[in-house]
Amino acid sequence: MFGIKFVKFEPGFYIFKYKGGKITKEGEGLSFYYFAPTTSLVAVPIGSIDVPFIFNESTQDFQEISVQGQITYRISDPKKISQLLNYTLNNATYGYLYDDPNKLSPRLINLVQVVTKNQVKRLTLKEALGSSENLVNQILKDVSQDKMVLALGVEILGASILAVKPNPETAKALEAETRETILRESDQAIFLRRNSAVEKERAIKENELNTEIAIENKNREIKEKQMESEKLVQLRTQELEESDLKFRIEQEEKNKALIALQTVNQKQTSDAKAYAIASVMKAYQGVDPNILQTLASVGMDPNKMIALAFQGIAGKADKIGQLNITPDLLNNLLKPNEETH
Questions:
Q1: pLDDT tens string 296-324
Q2: Can you give the residue ranges of the Band domain (predicted)?
Q3: Domain presence at residue 265
């Protein structure tokens, strides 16, 4: 009514109320009455704004790639930007009178594209495809320090690269190359695995051979020890046999000496007996045999005397006419012998 209006702004907008070319009220989320014909309202959004982007750039090796990402910013100094860009509102619709607020995001995107182009053109295709993190860091650094951004009072809150992609044909070529690389790596892995299996099998065989060799060596050592033991036993047996033979030889030598001594003694005894007999025979030389026989019969056993009698009879048998020997006589002669037995 009569040009007086009431306006209420939500938080997230910094409001400047101009009257007569001067700021009469400013702040965030204000609400007030104002006289429309003489008052201008400026509303600067101070919340964070996400701006997506996608660029087609060429790498150092002349390969085309697309860089897709997003930048987030906010207006940290509303007064600065309101002096460079027109954020005046239409008092009737409360929309912006000019297109300046829509120019901020494209300006920032242009800066991001310049930074991205400068980075990508230094990289090869493969390097660019893996440069997302480096691109993000470079965008944040260069855009935040840009003079225009600082003059506008804009703060860069963050940046992200969602994808770095080659064109479809290049992507297929890279896929084929990568696939071949993977297949080669797979073949290499299979080769290494088989080679490892062969090496392990060879190691097992070597272990088995070494074990067999060790067993053979041990058996040889055992046989050598047994042979040495047998040799020692044989040597000991031989020593014992030699010692026994030596002892027996010594005994035989002693026996030989003893026999020789006994022979000498027997010879001396025989000589002594012969001398005694010779002396006796010399004493009886010239004596009548009958007298000697009579002397010999003294104290003789009766049986022997009878035997001598029969011997005498037999010696003179040619002179005896008849001799009768009865059984009774023989029994009487034999009884003493039976009794003695």
A1: 665 656 666 666 666 666 666 666 666 66
A2: 10-187
A3: no
Each residue's pLDDT tens digit, 151-176: 999 999 999 999 999 988 887 877 77
Q: Which domain holds residue 16?
A: 4-166
Tell whether 276 is covered by a domain. no
Residues 153 and 22 in one domain: yes
As a whole number, the mean pLDDT across the chain is 85
CATH code of residue 23: 3.30.479.30
What are the tens digits of pLDDT across the range 76-86? 999 999 999 99
HEC string for the chain:
CCCEEEEECCCCEEEEEEECCEEEEEEECCEEEEEHHHEEEEEEECCCEEEEEEEEEECCCCCEEEEEEEEEEEECCHHHHHHHCCCEECCCCCCECCCHHHHHHHHHHHHHHHHHHHHHCCCCHHHHHCCHHHHHHHHHHHHHCCHHHHHHCEEEEEEEEEEEEECHHHHHHHHHHHHHHHHHHHHHHHHHHHHHHHHHHHHHHHHHHHHHHHHHHHHHHHHHHHHHHHHHHHHHHHHHHHHHHHHHHHHHHHHHHHHHHHHHHHHHHHHHHHHHHHHHHHHHCCCCHHHHHHHHHCCCCHHHHHHHHHHHHHHCHHHCCCCCCCHHHHHHHHHHHHHHC
